[in-house]
Amino acid sequence: MNDKYKRKEPFTIRVGVGETVVICRCGQSQDPPFCTGAHAKLSTPVEPFPYTAEREENLYCCGCGASKNQPWCDGEHKDCPENEDFKARW
Questions:
Q1: Spatial distance between the Cα atoms of 16 and 67, rounded to a whole number of angstroms
Q2: Which residues touch 74 (CB under 8 Å, ≥6 apart)?
Q3: How do strand 57-61 and strand 11-15 relate by DSSP bridges?
Q4: 3-state secondary structure the chain
Q5: Measured distance CA(50)–CA(19) in Å, rounded
Q6: Which is deepest, 17, 18, 38, 79, by most CB within 10 Å?
Q7: pLDDT, tens digit, 9 for 90 and up, residues 43-82
């Protein structure tokens, strides 16, 4: 995992209805939380996570690497935002 993933907060992505984002799950992206294809160079590649929004929303992606629900933030870093978008996901 590169240093860009050693955060004490989630990455926040704002998406609109029908918008697709491809989220990194290998921890090697140079533009986290988005996939840059770095997984292809790993000996055991981890596939990225494509997500298409059904509604306008905020996505909270793990920024610390400790989430047990990758690619989503599960609050493992103890600092997740306390707002309705985050609460609705859980």
A1: 25
A2: 62, 67, 68, 80, 90
A3: antiparallel
A4: CCHHHCCCCCEEEEECCCCEEEECCCCCCCCCCECCCHHHHCCCCCCCEEEECCCCEEEEECCCCCCCCCCECCCCCCCCCCCHHHHHHC
A5: 10
A6: 38
A7: 877 899 999 999 999 999 998 888 889 899 888 877 555 4
* pTM for this entry: 0.77
Terminal C-alpha separation, the chain: 26
What does the pLDDT read at residue 81? Answer: 52
Structure tokens at 79: 């600092």
Dmax over CA atoms of the chain, in Å, equals 39
Q: Tokens 């103890």, residue?
A: 78
Q: What is the pLDDT of residue 21?
A: 98
pLDDT at residue 8 is higher than 60: yes
